[in-house]
């Protein structure tokens, strides 16, 4: 039955892609039908995921479907876990796509829907793959899907560079996976993933494990591979950003989870490296995100932060496996899985809502985006819930996942290796700082962007997101931010069944102290009842509010109006409200050494109707250290080598014969030395 549903889903997606490529955006049905196919296929995949989590493991041999050895497909609880997430998000994002694509001038030409459906299909096949070739084939197909989505708006400034950067980092990750798979296949004499489970630990398997981590980290945005996210995500059209950030990026985490179960205990140095780099990624991502002036870049840098948080949890799991502490491994992997869930729904809600907002305003500049909650009530509500989740505030699922993450890092006293304890403490400090900065960044978006006063009070409200399918899609993305927290005990039971494939048994279910109370796997540690938060917090809020109104003799309800504060400098222009730039400017100064903040004085000419001689303004910019000190010097060296190589290609036959002779002599010397 599961096989029939999967074949039907892939067939529906293929048909939708065909409609988009043949008909395109010329006709309304041609614009909308592919996204309807995306929703139908995603619903089928979600059904398969639920059945797989609750069922047993099945492996299907499809013969020579891909013309290489045997094509193997597996369905087990871990695959079902990620298929459930993929299918559920696919339904919601496809519904948003239908509402977003309704205006005739919003989608032009072909390939937008086809690239989106290619991403859905590639993600599904990666999760199902049980042999190396199928996994790599689907992985490269996903990279091409990302490139296609980021290239659709290539005529806009900076988009072409973003698409090539997305493709380049994707190929680096695919190359690392290829080399790691070749090492494992050569040692096991098989391309079947299950055959690698029996490999003895050796330097070869350790190197392969590290290469797998590098390949998957490039997809999710771990430092130093994160540079494509802030430019790649905003380059994609509309809700495609939600598909890339909230849905497709999860295959990187799936790969890490799957190969931890296959390869077993990692080398200790790998666990330490993942913990340290994950903590640096989380801190650096949110530090740069909090000072960005464009909405999509703030949300994209938040994805970098969440990739770091998830990898920190994964690093705790690696440390537990490497040191023989299954409880530590369980709490780390459970915390990371909860963070994946929180990030997937919240990030999809943020990018899904921002697609409607940006289309209405014509920009994602935070200085212009004011009061979107009034002009876009549905998108504003979805964006607000997503922001609360990313800020880690109760009672959202983001609060639950981050509580588990901090509790996992506090278990460092159970591990006796000094290097691991120090790395967990270092990562814990960075994670705690990152969570505080995340609250600062997203409260800025809620207070100024969602709830702020729009300068264009006469602008009509946009109705795109109030289309029934738009409301359905945004609701399916935003409401789980609260519902998953309320149902956290059942969510952990579901996750525990999937994680049992990696952890063995049902160790993760030890987090359930009772039907309503959660603990970080270990007894006699701090506990949490997120379900009770939905009872206690409203009662406490109502009690405090009522008491305040009564004790103030209804003075709290009286409106008091005072003049707005404003600088006395004659050169100040614009609204009196606190700006998004001003809110984040303190952080630019406090973290100037991290952000590389640079300030310069610029002479600003006055407007024609102003009786002024101009004034001096201060421009502030931040410098991405990885781009400035790693990629740009590497690019300069690469161009220098390319220029030198080009000079060697003179077109003379005798020169080429000379090159071959020199290469042959060098090879003979190397062979003789080896003997």
Structure write-up:
The chain has 675 residues and is mainly alpha-helical. Among the domains are: 271-552, no CATH class; 580-604 and 614-621, no CATH class; 627-674. The protein is 68% helix and 3% strand. The chain is built from 25 helices and four strands. α3 packs antiparallel against α4. The longest helix is centred in the middle third of the chain and has 36 residues, at 326-361.
Descriptors:
single chain, mainly alpha
Q: Could you say which structural class the secondary elements and strand pairing correspond to?
A: mainly alpha
* Low-confidence residue ranges: 567-573
Shape: globular
Strand order of the largest sheet: 1-2
Summarize the structure.
Helices cover 68% and strands 3% of the residues.
How are the SSEs placed, and which strands pair?
Blueprint: H1 2-22, H2 28-54, E1 58-61, E2 72-75, H3 77-100, H4 112-128, H5 132-151, H6 159-188, H7 203-220, H8 228-235, H9 240-248, H10 250-263, H11 268-289, H12 295-323, H13 326-361, H14 372-375, H15 377-390, H16 397-409, H17 418-450, H18 468-478, H19 480-486, H20 488-503, H21 530-551, H22 580-590, H23 592-595, E3 598-604, E4 615-621, H24 625-648, H25 653-674
Antiparallel strand pairs: 1-2, 3-4
Helix pairs in contact: 1-2, 1-4, 2-3, 2-4, 3-4, 3-9, 3-10, 3-13, 3-18, 3-20, 4-5, 4-9, 5-6, 5-8, 6-7, 6-8, 7-10, 8-12, 9-13, 10-12, 10-20, 11-12, 11-17, 12-13, 12-17, 13-15, 13-16, 13-18, 13-20, 15-17, 15-18, 16-19
């Amino acid at each position: 039955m599961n096989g029939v549903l999967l074949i039907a889903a892939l067939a529906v997606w293929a048909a939708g892609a065909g409609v988009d490529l043949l008909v395109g955006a010329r006709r309304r049905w041609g614009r909308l039908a592919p996204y309807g196919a995306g929703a139908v296929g995603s619903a089928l995949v979600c059904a398969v995921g639920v059945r797989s989590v609750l069922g047993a493991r099945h492996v299907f041999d499809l013969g020579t479907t891909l013309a290489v050895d045997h094509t193997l497909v597996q369905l087990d609880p871990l695959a079902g876990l990620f298929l459930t997430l993929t299918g559920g998000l696919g339904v919601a994002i496809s519904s948003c796509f239908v509402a977003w694509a309704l205006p005739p001038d919003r989608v032009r030409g072909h390939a937008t829907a086809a690239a989106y459906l290619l991403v859905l299909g590639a993600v599904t096949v990666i999760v199902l793959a049980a042999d190396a070739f199928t996994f790599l084939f689907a992985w490269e197909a996903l990279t091409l899907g990302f490139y296609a989505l980021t290239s659709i708006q290539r005529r806009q400034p900076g988009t072409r560079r973003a698409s090539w950067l997305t493709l380049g980092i994707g190929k680096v990750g695919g190359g690392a996976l290829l080399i790691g798979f070749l090492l494992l296949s050569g040692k096991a004499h098989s391309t079947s993933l299950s055959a690698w489970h029996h490999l003895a630990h050796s330097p070869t398997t350790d190197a392969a494990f590290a290469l797998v981590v590098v390949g998957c980290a490039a997809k999710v945005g771990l430092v130093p591979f994160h540079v494509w996210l802030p430019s790649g995500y905003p380059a994609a059209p509309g809700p495609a950003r939600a598909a890339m950030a909230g849905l497709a990026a999860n295959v990187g985490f799936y790969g890490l989870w799957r190969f931890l179960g296959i390869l077993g205990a990692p080398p200790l140095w790998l666990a330490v490296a993942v913990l340290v780099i994950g903590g640096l990624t989380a801190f650096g991502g949110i530090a740069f995100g909090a000072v960005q002036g464009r909405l999509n870049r703030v949300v994209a840098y938040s994805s970098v932060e969440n990739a770091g948080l998830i990898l920190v949890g994964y690093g705790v799991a690696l440390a537990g496996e490497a040191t023989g502490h299954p409880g530590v491994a369980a709490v780390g992997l459970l915390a990371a899985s909860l963070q994946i869930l929180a990030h997937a729904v919240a990030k999809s809600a943020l990018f899904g809502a921002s697609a409607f907002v940006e289309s209405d305003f014509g920009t994602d500049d935070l200085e212009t985006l004011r009061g979107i909650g009034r002009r876009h009530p549905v998108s504003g509500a979805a964006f607000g819930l997503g922001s609360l989740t990313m800020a880690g505030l109760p009672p959202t699922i983001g609060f639950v996942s981050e509580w588990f993450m901090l509790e996992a890092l506090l278990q460092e006293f159970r591990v006796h290796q000094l290097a691991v304890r120090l790395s967990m403490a270092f990562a814990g400090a960075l994670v705690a700082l990152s969570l505080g900065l995340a609250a600062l960044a997203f409260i800025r978006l809620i207070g100024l962007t969602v709830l702020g006063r729009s300068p264009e009070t006469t602008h009509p409200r946009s109705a795109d997101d109030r289309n029934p399918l738009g409301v359905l899609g945004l609701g399916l993305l935003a409401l789980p931010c609260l519902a998953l927290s309320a149902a956290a005990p059942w969510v952990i039971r579901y996750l525990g069944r999937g994680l049992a494939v990696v952890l063995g048994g049902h160790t993760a279910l030890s987090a359930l102290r009772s039907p309503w109370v959660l603990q970080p796997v270990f007894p006699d540690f701090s506990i949490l009842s997120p379900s009770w938060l939905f009872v206690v917090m409203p009662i406490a809020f109502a009690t405090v509010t009522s008491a305040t109104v009564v004790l103030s003799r209804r003075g709290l309800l009286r409106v008091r109006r005072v003049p707005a504060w404003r600088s006395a400098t004659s050169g100040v222009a614009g609204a009196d409200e606190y700006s998004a730039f001003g809110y984040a400017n303190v952080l630019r100064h406090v973290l100037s050494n991290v952000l590389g903040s640079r300030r310069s004085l610029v002479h600003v000419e006055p407007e024609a109707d102003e009786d002024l001689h101009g004034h001096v303004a201060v421009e502030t910019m931040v410098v991405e250290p990885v781009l400035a000190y790693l990629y740009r010097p590497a690019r300069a060296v690469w161009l220098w080598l390319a220029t030198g190589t080009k000079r060697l290609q003179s077109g003379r036959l005798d020169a080429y014969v000379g090159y071959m002779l020199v290469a042959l002599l060098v090879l003979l010397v190397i062979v003789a030395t080896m003997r």
